[in-house]
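Retry 2 of 3 after timeout on previous attempt. Resubmitting structure tokens to design endpoint.
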């Protein structure tokens, strides 16, 4: 019993608990403009190429490093008295609530242009919310809490995404999509309340005191310049860019597969959202255990292999056809691998940040991690599925995961995992 108690104690500390609630709010906008919007458009009879093109709305998340410096350096009128991070959490949370409600009101069948604009606005608001949440999480956690904190944030992210996605489907089935999105807007509140409860993070760096052009340019260029001056920075950046291509390319097309296999909203809610949620939680738990026993390099390498191979399960599902057991197995394996990988990879990426540029650098890292996959999904995924079929498509997504594994192996061989870490991963 003492062993169990000691294992659970780090998860019950104030900072990791805060990371959990931050994750809840971080996950729900992405789910609503990703998988949920895909289902909504498919049910409205929109063709596959147009549906997959809508995934470009989540590409806004990959561009967030362009304005992340604003979150680090610009003070909000009146609200800034609550603190830089707290004020931005409240402001961006309010933007997300408004954008989600607007996305629910628009009718894709009446105007695709209006739906595109609403999706982009929701993506912009959600990405800004993410910038602040990530910075707040990293600066709140101590270096020794980064692993536990990333796990708790992943727990929260999955709960927020799954609960919002499931709630939207269930409510939309009975009361329409506008009510579904309206109900989900409340998921922005956990992060906003957490910021008011916990206050400004102790490790938050100094914000810009002057808004002169030179100071503003330093806030924009400084995060990138500092990162690229580290040992092996180019190899680390290459790994960040390519390690998740296959996983992103596959995951943003699952709802198309489910729709073509004839799954109902309730079946998707039960197996994809519900069963997948629990599999993800198990993966996070396993990730926490193996991370502490295997260390960073081995645990991340295992995660890369699992995330690549998990795509093959959807090739098997596509070949088998409509099968609830098959869907549960494929979703279970994919979410188990994603949950495990999320703990170790997010902890590593968080440790790469310099606390002077937390928001900007983590925005750069997290955006770079999936930008190529999202571009390929939005521009080619629908066409690839139509030309080569689902089975060959998911086999392809497994093959394109191999360059990331090779690059991480090179990083290990050259001793760059520790050499490239930032001050967020240092106890000093």
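Retry 2 succeeded. Sequence:
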């Amino acid at each position: 019993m003492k062993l169990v108690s000691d294992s659970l104690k780090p998860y019950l500390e104030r900072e990791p608990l805060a990371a959990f609630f931050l994750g809840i709010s971080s996950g729900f906008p992405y789910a609503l403009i990703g998988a949920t919007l895909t289902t909504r458009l498919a049910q409205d009879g929109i063709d596959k190429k147009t549906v997959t093109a809508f995934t470009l709305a989540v590409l806004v998340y990959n561009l967030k490093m362009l304005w992340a410096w604003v979150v680090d350096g610009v003070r909000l009128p009146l609200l800034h008295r609550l603190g830089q991070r707290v004020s931005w959490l409240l402001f961006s949370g309010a933007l997300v609530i408004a954008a989600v409600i607007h996305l629910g009101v628009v009718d894709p069948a009446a105007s695709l242009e209006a739906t595109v604009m609403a999706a982009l606005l929701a993506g912009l608001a959600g990405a800004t919310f993410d910038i602040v949440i990530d910075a707040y999480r990293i600066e709140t956690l101590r270096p020794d809490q980064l692993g536990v904190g990333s796990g708790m944030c992943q727990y929260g992210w999955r709960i927020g995404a799954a609960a919002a996605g499931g709630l939207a489907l269930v409510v939309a089935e009975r009361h329409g999509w506008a009510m579904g999105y309206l109900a989900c807007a409340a998921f922005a509140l956990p992060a906003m309340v957490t910021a008011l409860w916990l206050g400004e993070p102790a490790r938050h760096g100094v914000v810009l005191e002057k808004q002169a052009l030179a100071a503003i340019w330093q806030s924009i260029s400084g995060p990138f310049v500092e990162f690229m001056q580290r040992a092996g920075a180019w190899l680390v950046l290459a790994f960040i860019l390519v390690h998740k291509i296959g996983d992103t390319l596959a995951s943003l097309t699952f709802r198309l597969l489910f729709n073509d296999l004839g799954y109902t909203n309730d079946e998707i809610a039960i197996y994809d959202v519900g069963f997948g949620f629990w599999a993800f939680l198990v993966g996070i738990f396993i990730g926490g255990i193996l991370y502490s026993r295997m260390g960073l390099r081995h645990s991340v390498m295992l995660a890369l292999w699992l995330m690549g191979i998990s795509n093959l399960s959807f090739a098997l599902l596509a070949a088998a056809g409509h099968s609830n057991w098959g869907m549960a197995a494929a979703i279970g394996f994919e979410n188990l691998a994603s949950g495990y990988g999320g703990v170790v990879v997010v902890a590593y990426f968080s440790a790469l940040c310099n606390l002077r540029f937390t928001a900007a650098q983590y925005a750069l890292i997290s955006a770079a991690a999936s930008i190529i996959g999202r571009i390929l999904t939005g521009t080619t995924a629908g066409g690839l599925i139509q030309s080569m079929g689902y089975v060959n498509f998911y086999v392809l997504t497994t093959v394109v995961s191999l360059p990331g594994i090779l690059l991480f192996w090179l990083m290990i061989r050259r001793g760059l995992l520790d050499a490239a870490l930032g001050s967020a991963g240092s106890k000093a």
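Attempt log closed. The domain at 10-425 is CATH 1.20.1250.20 (Growth Hormone; Chain: A;).
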